[in-house]
Amino acid sequence: MHTDSSRRRFLGQCAAAATAASLAPSFAWAQGDTYPSRPIRIVVGYPPGQTVDTGARALSIALADILGKPVFVDNKAGANGILGAQDVRNAAPDGYTLLLGTSGQLAINPSIYAKPGYDPVKDFAPVMLNGVGRLYVVVPAASPFNTLADLVAYAKAHPGKLNYGSGGRGITANLAMEMLKKAAGADIVHVPYKGSSAALTDLIGSQIDVMMDAGGLVLPQVRQGKLKVLGVSSKGRYKELPQVPTIAEQGYPGFEVASWTAVLAPAATPPAVVEKLNKALLQAQRRPDVIRSAETSGSELEGGSPEQLKAFLVAENRKWGEAARAAGVTPE
Questions:
Q1: Which of 156, 159, 137, 133 has the alpha carbon at shortest distance from 147?
Q2: The dihedral sign for the CA sequence 11, 13, 15, 18
C-alpha cells in the first residue's frame, strides 16, 4: 500500500510526465516556427562540377531566397559518396546539415560495401525525392550498331567480343548494364574505369563499344554528334529524344532503371523542421534555374512527401541489392 508521501511522489511524477508529453509537440512546432535562424549546409559526397553538385548549387540559391538564410554546398567527396553520407549521419539533427544524396550513396553502397558506416533508411530523416533521371545506352557515332537489337544480336553471336565501360565496379552504371545483359542473355565484358569521365573518353574514341550512364554525362556528347543513343532506361521516352525507344519497348518489358537524388537530414530531426524543409524544397523546384539544371542533366524533378521518399528508399534498396547479387558483387 502506498504511504501518503509515496503517493504524492507518484502523482507528482505522473503530472510531470503529462506536462512533458503535452509540451513535446509544441516544442517541436516551436523549432519549426523559428527555423532556420542560421546558415544551412547541403553536403554533396562528390567533387564540384559533377551533376549532383550543380543540382545542389541551384537548389541552394533557391532555398536561400525562400528561407531567408544563407544555404551553401559543402563537397565531402570520397569513397563513392560514403564520406559525405557519414558526415550527415553524424551531424546534429537540427536541420542545419542536409544531404543531397544519390542512388549510388543511398541504394547501391549498402549492397557493395560490408560496412559503409550508415544505413540509408534508419540513419536519415527523409525530406524529399529531388530528381529522377534515366540512363542511356550509348555507342560511338561511328559504331555499326544503330539499335539495341543490333548490339544484342552481335553480342549473342560473338560472346565476349564486345565490352562496355563504367566509372567503376558496383556503381549505378555497372549494375544497370549487368541487369540489361541478364535480361538480354548477352555476354559483354565489363571494363571498369576510375571515374565515368575516363570511360566516356574511351567510348568516344571507340576504345570500348558501349556504355550505359546518366544524361548529365552522355547527353552533351549526344548533342554534339559524338555518340548515338540506342535506348533509355525509363518507363517512358525522354522528351528531348522522342525518337529513341525505351529499353522496355525493345523486347524487355518491365525494364526500368533510374538514377536519382534525394534530400535527407540526420535521423531524429524534428518533424516540424522536416516539414518546413519539404515545403521550401517543393517551392524551389518551381524556380526556373532549378528546372533548367535538372533538364540539362536529363532529369525530371519529382518532389513528394517525406513518407513517399521513405517508401521509395526501401524499394530502391531492395531492387539494387538484388541487382548486386545477380551481378556477383560481393560486399567488401
A1: 137
A2: negative
Residue 218 has what pLDDT? Answer: 93
Q: How far apart are CA 107 and CA 161, in angstroms?
A: 31
For residues 273 and 102, is the Cβ–Cβ distance under 8 A? no
Contact 120, 82 (CB under 8 A): no
- 111, 320 in Cβ contact below 8 A? yes
Q: How far apart are CA 313 and CA 319, in angstroms?
A: 10
- Check residue 23 and give its pLDDT: 46
pLDDT digits (tens, 9 = 90+) for 223-233: 999 999 999 99
DSSP 252-264: -TT---EEEEEEE
Q: Which residue blocks in 68-167 are alpha helix, DSSP H?
A: 82-89, 103, 109-112, 148-157
The CA-atom distances, in angstroms, between 100 and each of 79, 109, 224 are 16, 15, 30
- Compute the distance between CA of residue 284 and CA of residue 65 in angstroms, rounded to an integer: 9
pLDDT for the residue 7: 47
What's residue 31's pLDDT? 52
In the chain, alpha helices (H): 4-34, 51-67, 82-89, 103, 109-112, 148-157, 172-184, 196-204, 215-223, 271-284, 288-296, 306-326
Pick from 71, 102, 131, 59: nearest CA to 283: 59
Weakly modelled stretches of the chain, pLDDT under 50: 1-4, 6-7, 10-11, 13-30
pLDDT (0 to 100) of residue 3:
47
> Which distant-in-sequence residues (6+ apart) come within 8 Å of 40 by Cβ?
63, 67, 69, 70, 71, 72, 95, 96, 97, 98
Look up residue 245 and give its DSSP letter: P
Amino acid identity, residue 227?
A: L
When computed from its CA atoms, the radius of gyration of the chain, rounded to whole angstroms, is 23
pLDDT attached to residue 29: 43
